[in-house]
Amino acid sequence: MSPPERRDFIYRHLHEHRTVSISELVELLNVSHMTVRRDIRILEDEGKVISITGGVQLNDALRQELPWSEKALINHRNKRALGKYAASLVKDGQVVYLDAGTTTFEIAQVLAERFNLTIVTNDFSITHYLMNKPQLNLFHTGGQVDKRNYSCVGNTAAMVLRTLNVDIAFISTSSWDLEHGISTPHEEKVFVKQMLLEIARRKILISDSSKYGKYGMFRVCPLSDLNDIVCDGQLPMSEQKQLRETGLKLHIVDV
């Protein structure tokens, strides 16, 4: 494994486990302690991780998202359960927006077997998956292409959404919490997500718990702008309590 591949592995592993010991990384990567420490130092210089005694943890200030292909491998069991539950919230005849993401892709796989639905998305993977489902109406936003995430972002995509009335929007994110709301390290994503808040009758954040407590540079909205949050049961009970106290409808999915 090359040095860039090792650092990619460490960063991806931290997205799933948040904190990991140097000894564990030495065993997983089959390299020396010195090599792991050198990789961690480079990741730390890039602002992606923070060194702690005997290990390393993900930096809560998210600088960069993983590409779609790598995110799809993380917490897949949780995402599949969240997607199945989220799809159950959709009623026949609705116009449904699926935001770009690997969890919303799981929703798409369930909705693919439904009838009498219109799906709107900015995600190329979702579009490709649903392309051969003739019983569904399908719209893609177009716009600036985000090659890492197989999606369209920016003002052009947002302007297409402005022309639509959406019944239920499933909004994805790489980072969220009570203090920072929904945020992202990429400015171009803000336009699309904020437009959804304007046009959708029901706005649902769907995210696995590993993304809670992180924040990106660009703020999308406070959590109070949402109607629902769908998350897994690994979200700490103290956070669940605080979220419910805000008046949000919190759906905790057992995995």
UniProtKB/TrEMBL annotation:
Record keywords: DNA-binding, Transcription, Transcription regulation
Alphabetized SUPFAM superfamilies for the sequence: NagB/RpiA/CoA transferase-like (SSF100950), Winged helix' DNA-binding domain (SSF46785)
Database matches in InterPro entries: Carb_Metab_HTH_regulators, DeoR-like_C, DeoR_HTH, NagB/RpiA_transferase-like, Tscrpt_reg_HTH_DeoR_CS, WH-like_DNA-bd_sf, WH_DNA-bd_sf
One GO MF term: DNA-binding transcription factor activity
Domain HTH deoR-type: 3-58
Classification via Pfam families: DeoRC (PF00455), HTH_DeoR (PF08220)
Protein name per Swiss-Prot or TrEMBL: Alkaline phosphatase
Protein's organism: Xenorhabdus khoisanae
